[in-house]
Amino acid sequence: MIPIHAYEGRRVAVFGLGRTGIATAKALEAGGATVSCWDDAEPSRARAAAEGLTLDDLNRRDWGDIAALILSPGIPLTHPKPHHMVELARAVEAPVIGDIELFAQALADLPEKRRPKVIGITGTNGKSTTTALIGHILRATGRNVVVGGNIGDAILAQSPPRPGSYYVLELSSYQLDLTHTLACDVAVLLNVTPDHIDRHGDFDGYFRAKKRLFEMQKPGGLAVVGIDDNTTSAYYSALRRQRREEEVIPISAGRVFARGVYALGDRVYDALDCASHPIVDLAKVPTLPGRHNAQNAAAALATVRALGVAGRAAADAITTFPGLPHRQERVATINGVTYVNDSKATNAEAAVQALGCYERVRWIIGGRAKAGGLSAAKSQFHRVAKAYLIGEASESFGRELDGELPNESCGDLAGAIAAATRDALAEGGSGQVILLSPAAASFDQFASYEARGDMFRTLVNDRVAQGHAPEGVA
Asked: Which H or E run includes 166?
């Protein structure tokens, strides 16, 4: 645990008692704060009480002694309107912050020579893979590394920072909205496409949250910026005007430049210290398929090179990356049919990346639709043999696909797997891919995209248990 001393002797409200909220409350208590914990959901309150935390109904208490509100990132801050707790905090001029800001405050309290290196990664798609890949490279090259933020355990549940260590943080727009002083040594922006508009009001609000990561950096902080979409390319140009050339590193999965890191096809090129040269062959890294993962690999390589890792050592580490669950995770191949779990693809921009990795796909899609529907995936429809629709989006996705692709409404995940398997085997099975890449949020039928992916894996493995012969299980 990282004790938070910033509110020692004062009362702090913590609202939202999931994993992050509970870790935050414990860290504040360890630093001497009095913590009032609350969650409107009874099961969350019960978990917090079982952890020994003090429950205090923040809807009913006097807020006059509250020094700060620590808000769970998923709770509305500004849109569609501020949560009631936010309004109560603002009425007494208590700051509304998140656990990442508390982490930043803890670092600021350390003497300069004892502070770890901090790497922050944001973007619409690819954050988790890039974060995990950077952590993997740093560990493989002998560094002491903590990976956290929007991935893994809550950041405040980690061990206290040690000199010479590295904190690699995946940072969502929700988390950045609640963060004001996190000064990353390296900040990474992968890409930006419209997402979470209901939370941020419009695209400008969403992108403004992403840019906060760079605005919080101190002079000398390094920026690694993808230039494969118009928004981030323009932002790269803006940063170049504000900072020294060596402090802004471009990365791309298709564009060649004199200085930076880029990928062409399966080859990643290092053009940082000398003439551009190929350094990684991603064809030999099955856990990083597709153009989007080429961008992720370029971002990770640029980041660790900026931190002093030798190019060859970084390249060797990339080849041993084990991948992440729910991100093009190959679950099994049964009777020639390969089942791929890409449940993390919660929007069409993410799903299109997965579709581009296969020649012929039976595509399981649906859930709670996001703005834009499937329009961003149309460029890869020619790869789809048939779509299998699940959840709330079945009707709207079906309307979008009618006349474009064969499709079938299947209700739930079990029905979709059964229908897709039936059709794949009817065509002989061999070489067929059944891909769960839903292009929608999970919350209509599942608690999270992880729960959705876990169910997919369980259902596929049940087929193995029922006597279907697996040719390979990941």
From this structure: strand 166-170
What stretch of H or E contains 119? strand 117-122
Q: Which strand ranges, in their side-by-side order, compose the sheet holding 66-71?
A: 34-38, 11-15, 66-71, 96-97
User: How far lies 383's CA from each of 78, 159, 361, 405, 433, in Å?
Assistant: 40, 46, 6, 10, 11
The two three-digit tokens of residue 401, written as one number: 């696909």
**Listed residue (308, 332, 295, 355) closest to 129, CA to CA:** 295
Residues near 124 by Cβ (< 8 Å), separated by ≥ 6?
190, 191, 192, 193, 195, 347, 349
Q: What is the pLDDT of residue 470?
A: 52
CA distance 411 to 403: 21
State the number of CA atoms in the 13 A half-sphere of 66 facing the CB.
27
Q: What is the DSSP letter of 217?
A: P
457-470 tens-digit pLDDT: 999 999 988 866 55
User: Is residue 444 packed enough to be buried (19+ CB in 10 Å), middle (13-18) or exposed (0-12)?
Assistant: middle
- Residue 153 has a pLDDT of 86
* CA torsion through residues 322, 328, 331, 336, sign: negative
Q: Which of 439, 445, 291, 442 is nearest to 372 (CA)?
A: 439
Which residues of the chain are under the pLDDT cut of 50?
472-474
> DSSP string covering 13-74, please?
EEE--SHHHHHHHHHHHHTT-EEEEE-SSHHHHHHHHHTTPPB--TTTS-GGGEEEEEE-TT
Residue (of 347, 377, 380, 364) closest to 433 by Cα position: 364
pLDDT at site 443: 94
Report the C-alpha dihedral over residues 294, 300, 306, 312, rounded to 10 degrees. Answer: -70
φ, ψ for residue 327, nearest 5 deg: -125, 90
Q: Which long-range contacts (CB under 8 A, 24 or more apart) does 414-422 make?
A: 414/459, 415/390, 416/364, 416/366, 416/388, 416/389, 416/390, 417/339, 417/364, 417/456, 417/459, 417/460, 419/388, 420/362, 420/364, 420/386, 420/388, 421/337, 421/463
Q: Which two tokens stand for residue 443?
A: 């919350």
Nearest in space to 449 (alpha carbons), one of 355, 350, 332: 350
The residues pairing with 250 across neighbouring beta strands, listed in sequence order, are: 225
Buried b (16+ CB within 10 A) or exposed e, 458-473: ebbbebeeeeeebeee
CA distances from 404 to 28, 286, 393 (A): 54, 31, 17
Please work out, in degrees rounded to the nearest 5, the angle formed at the alpha carbon of residue 114 by the alpha carbons of 135 and 243: 70
DSSP annotation of 427: T
- Residue 300 host element (H or E): helix 290-306
